[in-house]
Amino acid sequence: MAAVGFRNWARALSRGKQPGFSALLSQVRAASGPSKGMLPGPYPKTPEERAAAAKKYNMRAEDYEPIPDHGEGYGDYPQLPDRSQHERDPWYSWDHPDLRRNWGEPIHWDFDMFIRNRVDTSPSPVDWHTMCKHLFGFIGFMMLMFYLGEKFPSYQPVAPKQYPYSSLHLERGGDPEKQPEERERTNVAGSKAKSAAEERHAEGERP
Amino acid sequence: MADYREAPLATRPKTLDPAEYFNLSLDQRRAEEERAGLRAQLKRQYQMQLNNPHRKELIEDPALTRWVYARTNPYNHFRATKKTSLLGGLFGVVPLFVLYYVLKTDRVWMR
């Protein structure tokens, strides 16, 4: 379709009665392709216009219902049911099987939204309220649990890392002359071994 | 399947519609026949073109041409009503001011 438009533009430029740019403005359209009567037009007001529009779109006059005109620019395009191509019979011999559409069949305004890769309006396996309950219930539960986890943290006891000897007094920029202050040390690992060594030491001293 | 209820945005398949089984008046049957007639004519046209051994070009679909034309030329029938003006203002004018304000204040704060 874009190729057709470009061809018209190029043709208008090369062949137009007025030279150059003004040829583009003169609404020249190629003689090939659909006539004016076969293209979409303005919103139909009289029953004759409706019948003609229905015939144009290959629909029954009773089935044809133009999209209600609130000024958006739909013209006389028919309002077809908002059903996705997912819902069409997969076993029928369509002319275009991937689109599940026959040649010449009127196309929904949002057809490119309703193709089989996109929006699916077919019935869901579970009904709406069950789906809502499940989804929001799960999300709500997870949010609650994460909130509680932030409020009441629970982890293995940890302490700052402790270094032997002068507890990195020099490395931390302490004065070499001054004595390091005594830091309180907690005996975590090896406390049992240390007390056993102390006992042996004490026993050894005793004769 | 008797208690099947469809989701609000989904539809009931035609084969599960009870109206198809219980309310087949003559008018509806006639309507279905007319629709089938239209379908058959279109199918015939397509098949004639498809299986024509002398055909060298692509088969043009007028419904597709009309759809493309309708989608690309809405402004021919556009009218400035309350609804269209509101939508145009909401999506076209307000974001300009909002974005200007947001970006301006954001940058001033960051500096």
Describe the structure.
Chain A has 207 residues and is mainly alpha-helical. Chain A is 32% helix and 0% strand. Chain A has a domain at 123-152. Chain A is built from five helices and no strands. The radius of gyration of chain A is 41 Å and the shape is elongated. Chain B contains four helices and no strands. Chain B is extended and about 70 Å long. At the A-B interface, loops of A face helix 2 and helix 3 of B. Chain A: Residues 169-186, 195-207 have a biased composition (Basic and acidic residues). Chain A: It comes from Hucho hucho (huchen). Chain A: Residues 31-52, 166-207 are annotated as: Disordered. Chain A: Belongs to the complex I NDUFB8 subunit family.
State the largest interface: A-B, 42 and 44 residues
Per DSSP, the total helix count of chain B is 4
User: Given the C-alpha coordinates, what overall shape of chain B results?
Assistant: extended
Compute the separation of the termini of chain A in Å: 109 Å
Instruction: Estimate percent helicity of chain B.
Output: 55-70%
Number of strands of chain A: 0
- Unreliable stretches of chain B: none
Bin the strand percentage of chain A.
under 5%
Any idea what the shape of chain A is?
elongated
Strand content of chain B: under 5%
Fraction of residues of chain A in helices?
25-40%
**pLDDT averaged residue by residue of chain B:** 86
Structural class designation of chain B: mainly alpha
Summed up:
The complex is a heterodimer of chains A (207) and B (111). Chain A is mostly helical. Chain A has 5 helices and no strands.
